[in-house]
Design goal:
This protein is α/β, with parallel strands linked by helices. Helix content is about 40%, strand content about 15%. It folds into two domains: about 140 residues, Aspartate Aminotransferase, domain 1 (Alpha-Beta Complex); about 250 residues, Type I PLP-dependent aspartate aminotransferase-like (Major domain) (Aspartate Aminotransferase, domain 2). The protein is globular. The structure holds ligand 7TS.
Length: about 400
Protein backbone atom coordinates (compact mmCIF):
# COMPACT_ATOMS: atom_id res chain seq x y z
CA UNK A 1 0.00 0.00 0.00
CA UNK A 2 1.43 3.38 -0.91
CA UNK A 3 1.14 6.60 1.05
CA UNK A 4 -1.95 8.69 0.52
CA UNK A 5 -4.27 5.76 -0.19
CA UNK A 6 -7.25 5.26 2.03
CA UNK A 7 -7.12 2.05 4.02
CA UNK A 8 -9.53 -0.86 3.71
CA UNK A 9 -10.44 -1.03 7.39
CA UNK A 10 -12.68 -4.08 7.16
CA UNK A 11 -9.80 -5.97 5.57
CA UNK A 12 -7.41 -4.73 8.25
CA UNK A 13 -9.83 -5.93 10.94
CA UNK A 14 -9.53 -9.47 9.61
CA UNK A 15 -5.90 -9.39 10.75
CA UNK A 16 -7.00 -8.96 14.39
CA UNK A 17 -8.94 -12.02 15.61
CA UNK A 18 -9.69 -10.40 19.00
CA UNK A 19 -11.91 -7.81 17.30
CA UNK A 20 -14.47 -10.59 16.72
CA UNK A 21 -14.98 -10.96 20.45
CA UNK A 22 -18.20 -10.11 22.17
CA UNK A 23 -18.55 -8.60 25.64
CA UNK A 24 -21.81 -9.51 27.38
CA UNK A 25 -23.17 -10.50 23.99
CA UNK A 26 -22.27 -7.16 22.40
CA UNK A 27 -19.57 -6.74 19.78
CA UNK A 28 -16.33 -5.48 21.30
CA UNK A 29 -15.55 -1.83 20.52
CA UNK A 30 -11.90 -1.52 21.51
CA UNK A 31 -11.01 2.10 22.22
CA UNK A 32 -8.00 1.59 24.47
CA UNK A 33 -5.16 1.40 21.97
CA UNK A 34 -3.17 4.12 23.77
CA UNK A 35 -2.78 1.68 26.67
CA UNK A 36 -1.95 -1.21 24.38
CA UNK A 37 -2.85 -1.91 20.78
CA UNK A 38 -4.18 -5.24 19.59
CA UNK A 39 -1.88 -7.60 17.71
CA UNK A 40 -2.27 -8.76 14.13
CA UNK A 41 -2.07 -12.41 13.17
CA UNK A 42 1.27 -11.99 11.36
CA UNK A 43 2.93 -10.85 14.60
CA UNK A 44 1.47 -13.74 16.60
CA UNK A 45 2.52 -16.11 13.78
CA UNK A 46 6.06 -14.78 14.05
CA UNK A 47 6.11 -15.59 17.78
CA UNK A 48 4.77 -19.10 17.14
CA UNK A 49 7.24 -19.68 14.30
CA UNK A 50 10.15 -18.68 16.51
CA UNK A 51 9.08 -21.03 19.32
CA UNK A 52 8.34 -23.92 16.98
CA UNK A 53 11.20 -23.60 14.52
CA UNK A 54 14.04 -21.28 15.49
CA UNK A 55 14.28 -21.08 19.28
CA UNK A 56 17.81 -20.81 20.61
CA UNK A 57 19.68 -18.24 22.64
CA UNK A 58 21.14 -15.44 20.57
CA UNK A 59 24.65 -14.08 19.96
CA UNK A 60 26.36 -17.03 21.64
CA UNK A 61 26.12 -20.16 19.56
CA UNK A 62 27.68 -21.40 16.37
CA UNK A 63 24.89 -23.89 15.81
CA UNK A 64 22.28 -23.23 13.14
CA UNK A 65 19.33 -22.48 15.41
CA UNK A 66 21.31 -19.92 17.36
CA UNK A 67 22.38 -18.27 14.11
CA UNK A 68 18.78 -18.16 12.89
CA UNK A 69 17.55 -16.62 16.14
CA UNK A 70 20.39 -14.08 16.10
CA UNK A 71 19.63 -13.17 12.49
CA UNK A 72 15.99 -12.52 13.36
CA UNK A 73 16.95 -10.20 16.22
CA UNK A 74 19.45 -8.30 14.10
CA UNK A 75 16.98 -8.02 11.21
CA UNK A 76 14.48 -6.52 13.69
CA UNK A 77 17.16 -4.08 14.84
CA UNK A 78 17.70 -2.97 11.26
CA UNK A 79 13.93 -2.55 10.83
CA UNK A 80 13.77 -0.47 14.02
CA UNK A 81 16.70 1.62 12.78
CA UNK A 82 14.92 2.29 9.55
CA UNK A 83 11.61 2.96 11.35
CA UNK A 84 13.07 5.86 13.35
CA UNK A 85 15.64 6.71 10.64
CA UNK A 86 18.67 6.30 12.88
CA UNK A 87 22.10 6.45 11.25
CA UNK A 88 23.27 3.10 12.58
CA UNK A 89 21.98 -0.07 14.26
CA UNK A 90 24.56 0.65 16.97
CA UNK A 91 22.18 3.38 18.08
CA UNK A 92 19.24 0.98 18.56
CA UNK A 93 19.08 -0.63 21.98
CA UNK A 94 16.34 -3.11 22.77
CA UNK A 95 14.73 -2.65 26.17
CA UNK A 96 11.61 -4.01 27.86
CA UNK A 97 9.73 -0.87 26.85
CA UNK A 98 9.58 2.89 27.11
CA UNK A 99 9.72 2.75 30.90
CA UNK A 100 12.94 0.77 30.99
CA UNK A 101 14.46 2.94 28.28
CA UNK A 102 13.86 6.14 30.28
CA UNK A 103 15.14 4.48 33.46
CA UNK A 104 18.27 3.44 31.59
CA UNK A 105 18.99 7.00 30.47
CA UNK A 106 18.11 8.56 33.85
CA UNK A 107 20.13 6.11 35.84
CA UNK A 108 23.18 6.42 33.58
CA UNK A 109 22.93 10.19 33.41
CA UNK A 110 22.81 10.40 37.18
CA UNK A 111 26.53 9.48 37.25
CA UNK A 112 27.27 12.89 35.75
CA UNK A 113 24.90 15.05 37.82
CA UNK A 114 25.69 17.22 40.81
CA UNK A 115 23.73 19.01 43.51
CA UNK A 116 21.74 21.89 42.00
CA UNK A 117 21.58 20.49 38.46
CA UNK A 118 18.20 20.67 36.76
CA UNK A 119 16.14 18.37 34.55
CA UNK A 120 13.26 19.89 32.56
CA UNK A 121 10.05 17.98 31.80
CA UNK A 122 6.55 19.14 30.83
CA UNK A 123 3.31 19.26 32.79
CA UNK A 124 1.81 16.45 30.70
CA UNK A 125 4.32 13.66 31.28
CA UNK A 126 3.44 10.04 31.97
CA UNK A 127 4.79 8.73 35.30
CA UNK A 128 7.42 6.86 33.25
CA UNK A 129 8.94 10.26 32.42
CA UNK A 130 8.64 11.65 35.95
CA UNK A 131 9.51 8.98 38.51
CA UNK A 132 12.87 7.88 37.01
CA UNK A 133 14.02 11.52 37.37
CA UNK A 134 12.67 11.67 40.92
CA UNK A 135 14.63 8.53 41.76
CA UNK A 136 17.91 10.14 40.76
CA UNK A 137 16.78 13.38 42.40
CA UNK A 138 16.74 11.53 45.72
CA UNK A 139 20.39 10.58 45.44
CA UNK A 140 21.73 13.75 43.88
CA UNK A 141 19.41 16.52 45.09
CA UNK A 142 18.86 17.77 41.59
CA UNK A 143 15.77 19.82 40.71
CA UNK A 144 12.98 18.83 38.37
CA UNK A 145 11.56 21.85 36.52
CA UNK A 146 8.16 21.62 34.85
CA UNK A 147 7.16 23.45 31.66
CA UNK A 148 3.58 24.75 32.00
CA UNK A 149 0.88 24.36 29.34
CA UNK A 150 -1.91 26.61 28.11
CA UNK A 151 -5.66 25.93 28.43
CA UNK A 152 -5.66 23.87 25.21
CA UNK A 153 -3.03 21.57 26.66
CA UNK A 154 -0.14 22.91 24.59
CA UNK A 155 3.36 23.45 25.95
CA UNK A 156 4.13 27.15 26.54
CA UNK A 157 7.21 27.61 24.42
CA UNK A 158 8.31 30.90 25.95
CA UNK A 159 8.11 29.43 29.42
CA UNK A 160 10.08 26.43 28.16
CA UNK A 161 12.92 28.58 26.90
CA UNK A 162 12.88 30.66 30.09
CA UNK A 163 13.23 27.53 32.22
CA UNK A 164 16.48 26.58 30.53
CA UNK A 165 19.49 27.89 32.43
CA UNK A 166 23.15 27.16 33.00
CA UNK A 167 21.98 24.59 35.58
CA UNK A 168 19.86 22.63 33.09
CA UNK A 169 21.50 19.32 32.26
CA UNK A 170 18.73 17.52 30.39
CA UNK A 171 15.28 17.91 28.83
CA UNK A 172 12.85 14.99 28.69
CA UNK A 173 9.53 15.48 26.94
CA UNK A 174 6.73 13.40 25.47
CA UNK A 175 6.15 13.59 21.73
CA UNK A 176 2.41 12.94 22.19
CA UNK A 177 0.49 13.18 25.48
CA UNK A 178 -1.32 9.97 26.42
CA UNK A 179 -4.09 11.96 28.13
CA UNK A 180 -4.53 15.11 26.05
CA UNK A 181 -3.42 13.79 22.67
CA UNK A 182 -1.29 16.93 22.23
CA UNK A 183 1.45 16.54 19.64
CA UNK A 184 4.32 18.56 21.08
CA UNK A 185 6.56 20.64 18.80
CA UNK A 186 9.52 18.49 19.77
CA UNK A 187 11.68 19.50 16.80
CA UNK A 188 11.43 23.13 17.86
CA UNK A 189 11.97 22.24 21.53
CA UNK A 190 15.08 20.25 20.65
CA UNK A 191 16.46 23.15 18.58
CA UNK A 192 15.92 25.52 21.53
CA UNK A 193 17.52 23.12 24.01
CA UNK A 194 20.48 22.54 21.71
CA UNK A 195 21.06 26.29 21.46
CA UNK A 196 21.70 26.05 25.20
CA UNK A 197 23.84 22.92 24.76
CA UNK A 198 21.28 20.67 26.48
CA UNK A 199 20.49 17.14 25.27
CA UNK A 200 16.88 16.02 24.86
CA UNK A 201 15.06 12.72 25.29
CA UNK A 202 11.75 12.31 23.48
CA UNK A 203 9.22 9.87 24.94
CA UNK A 204 7.66 8.55 21.77
CA UNK A 205 5.42 5.88 23.35
CA UNK A 206 2.28 7.56 22.01
CA UNK A 207 3.81 8.88 18.81
CA UNK A 208 5.34 5.74 17.32
CA UNK A 209 1.99 4.10 16.39
CA UNK A 210 0.66 7.26 14.74
CA UNK A 211 3.37 9.57 13.42
CA UNK A 212 6.32 9.16 11.14
CA UNK A 213 9.45 9.39 13.28
CA UNK A 214 12.73 10.72 12.01
CA UNK A 215 15.24 11.04 14.83
CA UNK A 216 17.78 12.69 12.56
CA UNK A 217 15.33 15.30 11.31
CA UNK A 218 14.24 15.96 14.91
CA UNK A 219 17.90 15.89 15.97
CA UNK A 220 16.73 13.98 19.08
CA UNK A 221 19.53 12.83 21.36
CA UNK A 222 17.39 9.98 22.68
CA UNK A 223 14.06 8.65 21.44
CA UNK A 224 12.14 5.87 23.21
CA UNK A 225 9.11 3.76 22.28
CA UNK A 226 7.18 0.58 23.17
CA UNK A 227 6.36 -2.25 20.77
CA UNK A 228 3.06 -3.19 22.43
CA UNK A 229 1.51 0.17 21.53
CA UNK A 230 2.38 -0.22 17.85
CA UNK A 231 0.78 -3.59 17.04
CA UNK A 232 3.84 -5.47 18.28
CA UNK A 233 4.30 -7.92 21.13
CA UNK A 234 4.64 -7.01 24.80
CA UNK A 235 8.00 -6.84 26.53
CA UNK A 236 9.98 -4.94 23.89
CA UNK A 237 10.94 -1.32 23.53
CA UNK A 238 13.55 0.74 21.75
CA UNK A 239 16.02 3.22 23.07
CA UNK A 240 17.50 5.24 20.25
CA UNK A 241 20.53 7.25 21.32
CA UNK A 242 23.13 9.20 19.40
CA UNK A 243 26.22 7.05 19.17
CA UNK A 244 28.56 9.69 20.58
CA UNK A 245 26.39 10.00 23.69
CA UNK A 246 25.86 6.27 24.16
CA UNK A 247 29.59 5.68 23.90
CA UNK A 248 30.25 8.07 26.77
CA UNK A 249 27.58 6.53 29.00
CA UNK A 250 28.24 3.81 31.58
CA UNK A 251 26.39 0.51 31.24
CA UNK A 252 22.98 0.27 32.91
CA UNK A 253 22.98 -3.37 34.00
CA UNK A 254 25.80 -5.88 34.11
CA UNK A 255 25.78 -9.47 32.98
CA UNK A 256 26.20 -11.59 29.90
CA UNK A 257 26.05 -10.10 26.39
CA UNK A 258 27.27 -6.65 27.51
CA UNK A 259 30.91 -7.50 28.20
CA UNK A 260 34.12 -7.47 26.20
CA UNK A 261 36.29 -9.46 28.60
CA UNK A 262 35.68 -10.33 32.24
CA UNK A 263 38.35 -10.99 34.81
CA UNK A 264 38.64 -10.56 38.57
CA UNK A 265 40.86 -7.56 37.94
CA UNK A 266 38.30 -5.74 35.85
CA UNK A 267 35.89 -5.98 32.97
CA UNK A 268 35.68 -4.34 29.59
CA UNK A 269 32.38 -3.72 27.88
CA UNK A 270 30.98 -4.80 24.55
CA UNK A 271 30.55 -2.46 21.62
CA UNK A 272 27.26 -0.66 21.07
CA UNK A 273 24.46 -1.58 21.15
CA UNK A 274 25.30 -4.68 23.23
CA UNK A 275 26.88 -2.65 26.03
CA UNK A 276 23.33 -1.79 27.10
CA UNK A 277 21.74 -5.19 26.55
CA UNK A 278 22.77 -7.28 29.55
CA UNK A 279 21.41 -10.82 29.78
CA UNK A 280 19.34 -12.85 27.36
CA UNK A 281 17.12 -10.43 25.48
CA UNK A 282 13.45 -11.10 24.79
CA UNK A 283 14.55 -12.38 21.42
CA UNK A 284 11.25 -14.04 20.47
CA UNK A 285 9.33 -10.80 20.91
CA UNK A 286 12.09 -8.67 19.40
CA UNK A 287 11.88 -10.76 16.22
CA UNK A 288 8.08 -10.40 16.20
CA UNK A 289 8.47 -6.65 16.73
CA UNK A 290 10.28 -6.63 13.39
CA UNK A 291 7.16 -8.14 11.84
CA UNK A 292 5.01 -5.45 13.51
CA UNK A 293 7.19 -2.74 11.98
CA UNK A 294 6.68 -4.34 8.55
CA UNK A 295 2.94 -4.40 9.19
CA UNK A 296 2.76 -0.72 10.17
CA UNK A 297 4.97 0.35 7.29
CA UNK A 298 2.91 -1.60 4.77
CA UNK A 299 -0.20 0.29 5.92
CA UNK A 300 1.74 3.56 5.88
CA UNK A 301 1.91 5.85 8.90
CA UNK A 302 0.44 8.76 6.94
CA UNK A 303 -2.57 6.61 6.06
CA UNK A 304 -2.94 5.47 9.67
CA UNK A 305 -2.73 9.05 10.93
CA UNK A 306 -5.28 10.29 8.38
CA UNK A 307 -7.74 7.54 9.33
CA UNK A 308 -7.36 8.12 13.06
CA UNK A 309 -7.67 11.87 12.63
CA UNK A 310 -10.98 11.37 10.88
CA UNK A 311 -12.19 9.20 13.78
CA UNK A 312 -11.00 11.82 16.28
CA UNK A 313 -12.99 14.53 14.49
CA UNK A 314 -16.15 12.41 14.42
CA UNK A 315 -15.75 11.54 18.13
CA UNK A 316 -15.04 15.13 19.15
CA UNK A 317 -17.99 16.56 17.22
CA UNK A 318 -20.28 13.84 18.56
CA UNK A 319 -19.24 14.19 22.19
CA UNK A 320 -19.56 17.99 22.09
CA UNK A 321 -23.30 17.60 21.47
CA UNK A 322 -23.75 15.91 24.85
CA UNK A 323 -24.88 18.25 27.67
CA UNK A 324 -22.34 18.66 30.49
CA UNK A 325 -19.44 17.42 28.30
CA UNK A 326 -15.92 18.61 29.13
CA UNK A 327 -13.11 17.59 26.78
CA UNK A 328 -9.55 17.81 28.13
CA UNK A 329 -6.99 18.60 25.48
CA UNK A 330 -7.92 20.72 22.48
CA UNK A 331 -4.47 21.26 21.04
CA UNK A 332 -4.28 22.41 17.43
CA UNK A 333 -2.10 19.39 16.71
CA UNK A 334 -3.70 16.38 18.28
CA UNK A 335 -3.38 12.63 17.93
CA UNK A 336 -6.15 9.99 18.24
CA UNK A 337 -6.85 10.31 21.97
CA UNK A 338 -9.87 11.96 23.55
CA UNK A 339 -10.20 12.51 27.29
CA UNK A 340 -13.45 13.75 28.77
CA UNK A 341 -15.82 13.97 31.72
CA UNK A 342 -19.56 14.51 31.82
CA UNK A 343 -20.63 16.77 34.71
CA UNK A 344 -21.92 14.79 37.66
CA UNK A 345 -20.73 11.40 36.36
CA UNK A 346 -17.67 9.76 37.85
CA UNK A 347 -15.22 8.57 35.20
CA UNK A 348 -15.30 5.10 36.70
CA UNK A 349 -19.11 4.86 36.40
CA UNK A 350 -18.91 5.99 32.79
CA UNK A 351 -16.24 3.37 32.05
CA UNK A 352 -18.21 0.57 33.75
CA UNK A 353 -21.43 1.40 31.94
CA UNK A 354 -19.70 1.70 28.57
CA UNK A 355 -18.16 -1.72 29.21
CA UNK A 356 -21.68 -3.13 29.60
CA UNK A 357 -22.28 -1.90 26.05
CA UNK A 358 -19.12 -3.67 24.86
CA UNK A 359 -17.14 -0.43 24.65
CA UNK A 360 -13.63 -0.61 26.15
CA UNK A 361 -12.32 2.78 27.28
CA UNK A 362 -9.82 3.61 30.00
CA UNK A 363 -10.69 5.58 33.12
CA UNK A 364 -8.59 7.13 35.86
CA UNK A 365 -5.43 9.23 36.00
CA UNK A 366 -3.74 7.42 33.09
CA UNK A 367 -0.41 7.41 34.96
CA UNK A 368 -0.31 11.19 34.78
CA UNK A 369 -1.34 12.28 38.26
CA UNK A 370 0.55 15.62 38.23
CA UNK A 371 -1.37 16.49 35.04
CA UNK A 372 -4.65 15.58 36.77
CA UNK A 373 -3.71 17.92 39.63
CA UNK A 374 -3.02 20.72 37.14
CA UNK A 375 -6.42 20.11 35.55
CA UNK A 376 -8.05 20.02 39.01
CA UNK A 377 -9.58 16.57 38.47
CA UNK A 378 -8.98 13.03 39.65
CA UNK A 379 -9.29 11.30 36.35
CA UNK A 380 -10.94 11.23 32.95
CA UNK A 381 -12.59 8.79 30.61
CA UNK A 382 -10.26 8.24 27.68
CA UNK A 383 -11.04 6.80 24.27
CA UNK A 384 -8.08 6.13 22.00
CA UNK A 385 -8.06 4.91 18.44
CA UNK A 386 -6.12 2.39 16.43
CA UNK A 387 -6.01 1.74 12.70
CA UNK A 388 -8.66 -0.98 13.07
CA UNK A 389 -11.38 1.27 14.53
CA UNK A 390 -14.32 2.16 12.28
CA UNK A 391 -16.61 5.14 11.98
CA UNK A 392 -19.49 2.89 13.11
CA UNK A 393 -17.58 2.05 16.29
CA UNK A 394 -16.96 5.71 17.04
CA UNK A 395 -20.66 6.43 16.48
CA UNK A 396 -21.57 3.56 18.83
CA UNK A 397 -19.20 5.02 21.40
CA UNK A 398 -20.71 8.53 21.14
CA UNK A 399 -24.22 7.04 21.37
CA UNK A 400 -23.13 5.02 24.41
CA UNK A 401 -21.78 8.08 26.19
CA UNK A 402 -24.98 9.99 25.38
CA UNK A 403 -27.05 7.11 26.74
CA UNK A 404 -25.11 6.99 30.02
CA UNK A 405 -25.30 10.79 30.34
CA UNK A 406 -29.09 10.63 29.90
CA UNK A 407 -29.39 7.88 32.54
CA UNK A 408 -27.71 10.11 35.09
CA UNK A 409 -29.36 13.38 34.16
CA UNK A 410 -33.00 12.31 33.88
N1 LIG B 1 5.13 7.32 28.07
C1 LIG B 1 3.90 7.55 27.60
C2 LIG B 1 3.60 8.86 26.93
C3 LIG B 1 2.91 6.55 27.71
O1 LIG B 1 1.69 6.78 27.24
C4 LIG B 1 3.24 5.32 28.33
C5 LIG B 1 2.22 4.24 28.55
C6 LIG B 1 4.55 5.13 28.78
C7 LIG B 1 5.46 6.16 28.64
C8 LIG B 1 5.01 3.85 29.38
O2 LIG B 1 5.08 2.86 28.41
P1 LIG B 1 5.41 1.35 28.81
O3 LIG B 1 5.18 0.59 27.56
O4 LIG B 1 6.80 1.30 29.28
O5 LIG B 1 4.43 1.00 29.90
N2 LIG B 1 0.90 4.70 28.56
C9 LIG B 1 -0.19 4.03 29.00
C10 LIG B 1 -1.46 4.57 28.96
O6 LIG B 1 -1.74 5.66 28.52
N3 LIG B 1 -2.34 3.68 29.48
O7 LIG B 1 -1.66 2.60 29.84
C11 LIG B 1 -0.32 2.80 29.54
Amino acid sequence: MTEGMSLDISKIREDFPILNRTIDGKPLVYLDSAATSQTPRCVVDSIVDMYYNHKANVHRGVHTLSQEATDRVEIAREKARNFVNAASTQEIIFTRGTTEAINLVASTLSDTLCHGDEIVVTAMEHHANIVPWQLIQRNKRINLRVVPMNSRGEVQMEAFENLLSENTRFVSVCHVSNVLGTVNPVKEMIAIAHRHGIPVLVDGAQAAPHLKIDVRDLDADFYVLSSHKMYGPTGVGVLYGKKALLERMNPYQGGGEMIGHVSWEGTTYAELPFKFEAGTPDYVDIAAFGTAIDYVEALGLDNIAAHEHRLLTIATEGLMQIPGMRIFGTAREKSGVISFLVDGIHHYDMGMLLDKLGIAVRTGHHCAQPLMTTLGIEGTVRASFGVYNTQAEVEAFVAGVARVAKMFHH
